[in-house]
Specification:
Pfam families: Metallophos (PF00149). InterPro entries: Calcineurin-like_PHP, Metallo-depent_PP-like, PPA2-like, Ser/Thr-sp_prot-phosphatase. It catalyses: O-phospho-L-threonyl-[protein] + H2O = L-threonyl-[protein] + phosphate. It is an enzyme of class 3 (hydrolase). Belongs to the PPP phosphatase family. The chain is α/β, with parallel strands linked by helices. Helices cover 32% and strands 16% of the residues. The N terminus is likely disordered. The chain has a six-stranded mixed beta sheet with strand order 1-5-6-10-12-11. Strands 4-3-2-13-14 form a five-stranded mixed beta sheet, covered by helices on one side. Strands 7-9-8 form a three-stranded mixed beta sheet. Strand 3, helix 4 and strand 4 form a beta-alpha-beta unit. It has a domain of 180 residues: Metallo-dependent phosphatases (Purple Acid Phosphatase, chain A, domain 2), CATH 3.60.21. It is globular, with a radius of gyration of 19 Å. Helix 1 packs antiparallel against helix 4, helix 2 crosses helix 4 and helix 2 packs parallel to helix 7.
Length: 325
């Protein structure tokens, strides 16, 4: 009996390795394999709490948005997958051309390296948003039907909402909420559902910081809130945090401190939408340290600058605070 189980496990592992090898070449999986991949991902993600606890050393990554070359390049910058620990802050799909391959590969890595790969939910990991911003159309184009999109969006419901690094850094995709002060309350959310239009879960995925806002106000995104330094200061003090780390907004250098260095934004999709000229960045944390080491990179598919002919030479052609991801 033990030999039989071992053989089945080995066969499953070999199949997963073949999927990873295929996906790393930017070749999509067949529809039947995607269904199995999503099922295995759900089995793992469903065991994790809303707030997952992650220890250092770890590398945190921001939005990917279907930019496959940047996803592969950040592993070159951050270290070999399976040896280095990675925390992704959401928004794997939409906008870019290879959302299917990006999320398939990340799910495969999660299954193979469950203690080295951690995936949070972003505001684009839901049915309503991904149906509008490209992922639905990509699935239809590449598979000729809606089934693959349904498999992925059903799996997205199981993605955790936050990560707590060494009990000192709270990470989420969007930002804070005035509906919650204690981190423990986040674990009380029933997350296995479509992202609602309002509430704590929505704020965690949709909110943005703003240094000019005293407390908080409604967001012009139509979901989440805009939170000011006073909210962040109160939240970090109450929960004994060094700072919060989030993604969700394009920033010129790939990372940006705000709110008296209590809020850090990370964005990993370089030259976002092939027009923003932003750098991508990841954040590495050494063991027992809250001091980030940033690794930046230019887009792997940058078009030449019309002025100089140098790829990615102009990184200041937009206002990062108002370009929404």
């Amino acid at each position: 009996m033990c030999t039989e189980i071992s053989t089945l496990s080995k066969r499953s592992g070999n199949e997963l390795d073949s999927w990873i090898s295929q996906l790393e070449k930017k070749i999509k999986l067949p529809e039947s394999k995607v269904k199995h991949l999503c099922k295995k991902a759900v089995e793992l993600l469903g065991q994790e709490k809303n707030v997952i606890v992650v220890s250092t050393p770890v590398t945190a990554c921001g939005d990917i948005h279907g930019q496959f070359e940047d996803l592969m390049y950040l592993f070159k910058k951050g270290g070999r997958i399976g040896q280095e620990k990675y925390l992704f802050l959401g928004d794997y799909v939409d906008r870019g051309e290879y959302s299917v391959e990006c999320i398939s590969l990340l799910f495969a890595y999660k299954i193979k390296y469950p203690n080295y790969v951690f995936l949070l939910r972003g505001n684009h990991e839901c049915r309503s948003t991904s149906q509008v911003y490209g992922f639905y159309d990509e699935c239809m184009r590449k598979y000729g039907g809606v089934t693959v999109w349904k498999n992925f969006t059903d799996a997205f419901d199981y993605l955790p909402l936050c990560a707590l690094i060494d009990n000192r850094i709270l990470c989420m995709h969007g930002g804070l909420s005035v509906k919650c002060l204690d981190i423990g309350e986040i674990n009380m959310i029933d997350r296995v559902k479509e992202v609602p239009y309002r509430g704590l879960m929505t704020d965690l995925l949709w909110s943005d910081p703003d240094d000019e806002t005293e407390n908080w106000k409604a967001s012009n995104r139509g979901a989440g809130i805009i939170f000011g330094p006073a909210i962040t200061s109160l939240y970090t003090h109450f929960n004994n945090l060094a700072y919060i780390c989030r993604a969700h907004q394009v920033v010129k250098e790939g990372y940006e401190w705000s709110q008296e260095k209590l809020c850090l934004t990370i964005f990993s999709a370089a030259n976002y939408c092939s027009e923003c000229r932003n750098q991508g960045a990841i954040m590495k944390l050494n063991r027992n340290s809250t001091n980030p080491i940033f690794k930046q990179y230019l887009g792997q598919t940058y078009p030449p600058s019309p002025d100089t002919g140098d790829a990615g030479s102009d990184l200041t052609t937009y206002n990062s605070r108002y370009f929404m991801a």
